[in-house]
Design brief:
Elements lengths: L1 E7 L38 H9 L5 E7 L19 E2 L5 E6 L11 E10 L5 E4 L16 E4 L7 H7 L7 E6 L22 H11 L8 E13 L5 E2 L2
Antiparallel strand pairs: 1-2, 3-4, 4-8, 5-6, 5-7, 5-9, 8-9, 9-10
Length: about 240
Amino acid sequence: MKSCFCLFLSPLALPFLCDAWATGQPRKGAVTSKLLARRDDGSEVTRRDTLKGLSGLALSPIVLPVSAEEGETLYEPKFIQQYEDFNKLPSGVSYRDVNLGKGPEAIKGDRVVYDWSGYTIGYFGRPFQAKGGPQGGAFDKDLDYERTVLGSHQIVPGLEEAFYGMQAGGVRQVVVPYKVSYPADDLKHEKVGPKPSTFSGMRALNFVLENPRLDRTLLFNVKVVRIDKPNGSGGFTRG
């Protein structure tokens, strides 16, 4: 028997979950957020500022048809929300370039050094890894950069796919559906990353991943710090 699960999330909300990493000029038409970031004068945006900004967003219903015969995918959405100005790949991944980088593009075999943040975009936009946002408590601004070799399948498949073609300094928003997200058998995220750096982040992520009645779509904001090319001897030449 068919039933419906309603979720309220506006496409307008998505740009507000973009971190203010880029120091260069954003590409034409790109929208960056003053939420979860620092103001131009260097002062930090407070949680109250963030809530005030989010309260002004328009909400629109997304109706997700579901079937009791679908087992684990009981509440997986049959209709994926389309976001303006995003490019959709055949895998279901959508991405948007906020800042274009410079230099060689990332290809298979390259080691990509990157910074990232993540949000449960399908479930109230809760952060499970925050960068450039409210400091202190669970959020640490001095975390080490992540690294992955493209083609090694060390990170979420949908995110790895989105790294191809990026350049050093580039910032990209990536919407990852559950089918190309974190694997169900690795809830400690030690086999497939990136792994949230805090307990609260891990809990926020797993709450969504373990609940098939929720929309488990995730948003990643990634900034490529550099791209290291293979040196032919099993190592890499720093980019």
